[in-house]
Amino acid sequence: MGIWMLTTLVLTRGYAGTLMSLLAVRHVRQPYHTLMDVLDDPEVIQIWQKNSANEQLLRSVTSGIYREVMNQEELGLLIFRTQGQLSESLTSLVKPGGHVLIDVDVTVRNLIAGIFSQSGRCDYFVSRDGFLPSYGVVASQKGNPLIPAISKRVMQLTSSGIFEYWFEKQIPNSTSCLITPSTVVERVPLSLASLWGVFVMLAAGLTSSVIAFCLENFITYFS
Ligand SMILES: *[C@@H]1O[C@H](CO)[C@@H](O)[C@H](O)[C@H]1NC(C)=O
């Protein structure tokens, strides 16, 4: 009787646990966090901005990771879209899957915020790793004595975080999709189809309990 109860207990707990986790959360896959993650995937297509400094960089490097990125073009895994086409590329290519958009952080966040303002949904995640640092600078005549003073102010402005502040103030909903959770609470109504695994678990559990019960009786009977 002891083994039978134990088996039943384990299987019931397993079944309840599976049911609970199935009802509560849905896991969101976030497969790309570095440029290397993207290159390691032999199927994903990268979208870079057409006619940009980044395109120029890709087309001019002769070695290293950006050369590897450029080599993807022959394989059909690298495409270029103009800045005006990026938002549409996100909704029509990145959202269905199979594509990633690679651009300057503020550009990507701006696009995601714009889409959120229209749809109210955060359908994208931004990689943890950043690369291609991009700076805004003040240029002046060579030898201008004001340059050291200007440089100091630029450094102060940068470290004060004012650019980030302006970005948040100017772009509506700019912070709405910054933290994309890796699990989301499921709100869609459950259908029988999405619960098939649970029924398989239940059937398997009941079958194993019956077998365990019979075995137990069998052993007791013959000993
Ligand atoms: C921010 O997003 C919400 C939800 O999509 C939208 O209703 C609202 O108009 C957006 N705010 C602005 C200023 O666009």
TrEMBL record:
The chain crosses the membrane at residues 195-215. Residues 1-16 form the signal peptide. GO terms for cellular component: plasma membrane. It is found in: Cell membrane. Residues 1-206 form the Ionotropic glutamate receptor C-terminal domain. One of its GO terms (biological process) is detection of stimulus involved in sensory perception. Its main location: membrane. It comes from the Eukaryota. Keywords: Cell membrane, Glycoprotein, Membrane, Receptor, Signal, Transmembrane, Transmembrane helix. GO terms for molecular function: ligand-gated monoatomic ion channel activity. It is a multi-pass membrane protein. Belongs to the glutamate-gated ion channel (TC 1.A.10.1) family. This is Ionotropic glutamate receptor C-terminal domain-containing protein. It comes from Petrolisthes manimaculis.
